[in-house]
Give the backbone structure.
Amino acid sequence: MARKKAASKQTRSKTTVKKNARKSSKRVKARRSPAPRPAALKLDETPAARKRRATRILKALRAAHPDADCALHHRNAYELLVATILSAQCTDERVNQITPELFRRYPDAQALAHAKQETLETQIRSTGFFRNKARNLIGMAQAVCERFDGRIPDNMDDLLQLPGVARKTANCVLGTWYRKNVGLVVDTHVGRLAQRLGLLATARNDKDAVRIEQDLMKLFPTESWTWLSHALILHGRQVCTARKPRCDECPLARDCPSAGAFD
Ligand code: SF4
């Protein structure tokens, strides 16, 4: 009898532990839940209709953010490249806080190529992923010195050879500093807005930055790509934020299939 009671107590306690674990896992999931997605996108439109809508979106963005520009402080291509590499998984504000001192210590690729990994890690620690970033920054600077005579390349193929440089970073440097519209800077804001605005032709929940970039390049004129990237980033920060998009005051609402879907 006593053994039965003990067994039943043990079972009850196991059930309680499981329930608590489920509750706590739900809490963890709730905390880590992704940015809200619209309930339904009404996207049964032809490619031509989507292009017309994209043109209206571009016009509305131009009116809303005429001066949109890169938020990373820089005075030359080298500084912009370093700041852009540092901005991965980090806010531009935080990057801007540490770059003045960093550029004072390492004013060019030659200086950065001779930086000590551990020292650089300490100097950029607050931007996150500092070990990887330090390795990439030193590798990038060494490659720039060895292969490009210390000058930051002004074309996509050469930029993509540098450690820590993918299309997003290369597009930012090419478009912002060299004024070459080779593609769009697809960061987390641009990806989210492209999805909410129903601008992705192939996969509406696509997270692949290169495919998102290809879709956007087909919809918008080449000369708008760099400015549009900065405008979408700004709009994503100020209005169409990840957690609480402010559709009621959004100038794109008329052409956005997600407008009001988050209430
Ligand atoms: S209406 Fe504006 S704020 Fe709302 S989802 Fe669309 S783009 Fe974002």
Observations:
- The pocket of iron/sulfur cluster is lined by residues 196-197, 239-240, 245-247, 250, 252-253, 256, 258-259 (CB under 6 Å).
- Residues 47-69+183-255 form a domain with the Endonuclease Iii, domain 2 fold (CATH 1.10.1670.10).
